[in-house]
Every structure is written in C-alpha cells, then in structure tokens.
Amino acid sequence: YGKRNIYLCYFPTPFDVDFTFLHRFLLLFFRLPAMWLFRLARKLCSSFVEALEVEEGLYEPRRFLLGRGSWSSGRVVMRVKKKATLGELRLGLKNPSTTPFDSMNVRLELIEKPAGKVVVEKSLSIPRSAKEIISFFEYDNCSSETGRVKGYEDQKSNFYILISSDTFVPSSVDSKSIDARKLGVFVYNETKTGVIKKIVLKILGFVPLFLVDYPRDLKFLETYDRIVAISEFSHGWIRKLWGKDSVVLYPPVEVDDFEPGKKEKIILSVGRFFPEHHNKKQLELARVFIELLKEYPHIMNGYQLYLVGGVDQRKNHLEYVGKIESMSKDYPIKILTNVSWDNLVDIFSRAMIFWHAAGMGVDEGKEAYKLEHFGITTVEAMASGCIPVVVNKGGQKEIIKNGEDGFLFNSWEELKKITLDICGGKVDVDKIRKNAIRNCKRFSAHMFEKNLLSIIEEETNVLRSITYP
Q1: Cβ of 165: how many Cβ atoms within 10 Å?
Q2: CB under 8 Å to 111, separation ≥6 — which residues?
Q3: Above pLDDT 70, what percent of the chain?
Q4: Separation between Cα atoms, residue 229 and residue 224, nearest integer Å
C-alpha cells in the first residue's frame, strides 16, 4: 500500500514445487469455492477484523481473524485499533492435548504505547485440553459502560495486547511429528456471533489455506515498482520465469565477525542438514573425504572433515544425519549440529579449506531452485581465511574468482584434485587466502546498506518526478 514498493526475491521458485496429486486436484476443483467462502467469512467477521491487527506471533493470523484458532509462537503481539472498544474483544486461550504441559503458564498484558505502561495484566495456568475465555470487561481498569480503559476514554492512546506462554517443539515431543516449529498457547477469536456465522466459520476451519493463497498468475508483481534479486543467478531466472527485470542486491554478510586464526588441517562444510531440495550434499562430501583418505593417505594424513550445521527435529532430517554418522564411523569426520555462533566462528577461523557442494548432480535447466542462490557461508569462509572450493553452479560463481580467491569444481573428481593440490602444497595458499579476505568485503553489511539506500534513493527520485493532478 506504499507509494513505492520493492519486492525482494531470493529465487522465483515455482509456487507448486512441493504439490502432490492431491494438492493439484484440490486446487483445480475447490479453489474458487474456497475463495468465495473466505470472502464471505471476512464480511461476517468484519467487526473483529476491524478491531485488531495481528503484528506478530500467530502462525495463521488469517484463520484467527476469521474466527478460527491459531497456534502461537509463545509471544503474540496484537494492536487494538483506535476505533475499537475492548468490549468487542473476547479471546480464547487453550492448552491443547497435544502439548507436553499438564498446566501451561500464560500471561496476558494490555499495554499502552508509547509509554509502555501495563494497564491490564493477568497470569493464567491453563490445564491440559482446557480453554480460558478472556473478556476485558472482567477487569477493574475497564469500563463496562464505554468498553474502554478507564482514564483513556479519549482514544488518543495506542493499546497493544501481549500474550506470552510456555513453548514446546512438537517433533521433540512426538517422534512421528515433522513439525519443528516452536509453539505456544493456542489462541482463538471468541467474538460472539450468530448461528449462520458459526456454521460458515466451522466449515472454513477445514479449508486448506493454500487454496486461497496460491496465485493463479503473476499479477501481484504489478503492485511493485522494483524487483530486487539476491544474485545475478536469481536475476537471470526472474527474467526467464517471470519475464521481469530486476536489480541485484547481494545479501549482507557480517564479514567483520570473522577473522583467520591459527590454521589446522581441517576441511569444513557448513549448512543445514536436510535431505530434500537444495541440500548441502554432506553425505556425498563425507564419501569424497573417505575416498581421499584411502587413495592418498600420505597427502591427507592428519586432515579432518567438519560437517557443521543446524538440524530440525524432524524424522527425515535426523535420519539423514544418522546416515552420515554411520558412514563416517571410524574416520576423522566430525558432525556438529546446532552449534553456537561463537563456536561456528571459531571453527571457521581454524579451518584450512572450505567445501560447498549444494547443487551437484542437479540439472540447472530443470531444477534451478535446488542450487545455492547466493552462498553466504562461502563469503564467511573467505573472511575467515579459508580456501573456498565450491561447486561451479548457482550464485557461487559470482562469489569466487577461480584460481584467485578460491576454486570452482564441476565434478567430484575435480573437487578431489583441487583439494589434493592444496593439501599437497601445489597451491600458493597465502596468496589465495589474502585475496579471499580482501574480496569478500564487497559482500559486507556496509556494502549492502550502501547499495540498498542507493536503490531506495533512486525510487524516491522517481516518485518526486511524478506530477499528480
């Protein structure tokens, strides 16, 4: 709704890339009825929608505003619109049976801004499967006559509702769950409504949101004045898939957080552990490292492979890590998951070589979204004085100048050869390291800020040149 709008695109991944046959079937036959139903529900719930604005903390704010419940993240912030009265607002707070809490601790606060004064507060202990209904008329601070906070009847203050609660991760509680989100209290819109509304909203609760969210075309792009891509790689595919031009704005990398330390015989790969989409090929890298150890024991003597990255508590993600651990048994391979930032920075500083292979074996023409769209960890490796050896695909090609500040490889055999040259002393390591530390500065947070402001200034100048009747 701004006068000028910028759309930031990581990569123009097809919207239906994860769709199964069932998704496509539902989209074909039920999309229009679902959209009609949502429009009707929004009209029926207009009073509540116009009273509250969800700012953060609800995973499905639209369902909440349309009379259904939504999981929270454990911290919900909602703004009470000035024309609304607190008497119109009724919230339901539930501790569902699927949580691990026999009793969930929940705190509700009504805060006046900008002073930050808490004018209403309540602490709850909600038993499992129970729901608490919150009506602000219950509190002495609120007037049942005006529906407003006493002393603030002039409506000049801004009020925010803050709901905080205990949290849990479903996949850590139930091994069969793949939900790795942090969940808190379940929040309902309990605004009183008629029978017809209740029926419509009940039906709405069973409608998958993707039926409403899925864009049938690219018309939404017309509401933006500028499309920003995070790399030349994404820029090219935006033009190819969307037929739109874009400007490249490389993401910010905190290069000043990294610095080279005393180097050890460590080959490092950093990236999340997961088996699907653009996975980081940790399994293949472990296999390559083991082959190097077996085929060239003299050159690779003393080297270790560090595979570092986050992992969600999802069954298939954990199984993927387990598979790597099984292969790596009895070899100098360390698999470190969910390490702290300080620990990661330390490992970067000590590592000699950095490997990155996301996209190997992928047909760029058919599945470009599986490649690395930029490569932040590669830049972090350069800032740490590592020698980057990365796949010659995707955004990596824009970061590394082959042979100057790192190396690009096109096959597993080429990765092995480059690594052997580095470990065997055939590469001027000091020169490559010096160039890498210097060249990574073009991706710094400072350069990002400078380039972003330049884009905004250009759009601002365009706006100023427009004359309105």
Answers
A1: 26
A2: 117, 118, 119, 159, 160, 161, 162
A3: 91
A4: 13
- Supply the DSSP string of 45-103, one letter for each residue: THHHHTTEEEEEEES-HHHHHTT--EEEEEEEEEEEPTT--GGG-EEEEE--TTSS-SE
The closest of 125, 53, 134 to 91, measured between CA atoms, is: 134
CA–CA dist 342, 217 (Å, integer): 44
CA distance linking residue 298 with residue 296, whole number of Å = 6
**Chain segment 367-392, per-residue pLDDT in tens:** 899 999 999 999 999 999 999 999 99
Q: Cα angle at 144 between 142 and 148, to 5 degrees?
A: 45
- pLDDT band for 360, please (50, 70, 90 cuts): very high
Instruction: Please state the φ and ψ torsions of residue 47, each to the nearest 5 degrees.
Output: -65, -40
> Residue 100, preceding bond cis, omega within 30 degrees?
no
How many C-beta atoms surround the C-beta of residue 14 within 10 A?
10
Name residues whose C-beta falls within 8 Å of residue 465's C-beta, 6 or more positions apart in sequence.
Answer: none
pLDDT attached to residue 159: 81
Residues 6+ apart with CB under 8 A from 223: 5
What pLDDT sits at residue 199? Answer: 77
Residue 218, sorted as left (phi over 0), alpha (psi -120 to 50) or beta, turns out to be alpha
Closest CA to 255 of 166, 384, 435: 384
Roughly what angle, to the nearest 10 degrees, separates helices 195-204 and 21-44? Answer: 160
Cα–Cα distance for residue pair 192/144, rounded to 1 Å: 16
Q: Hey, is 4 helix, strand or coil?
A: coil
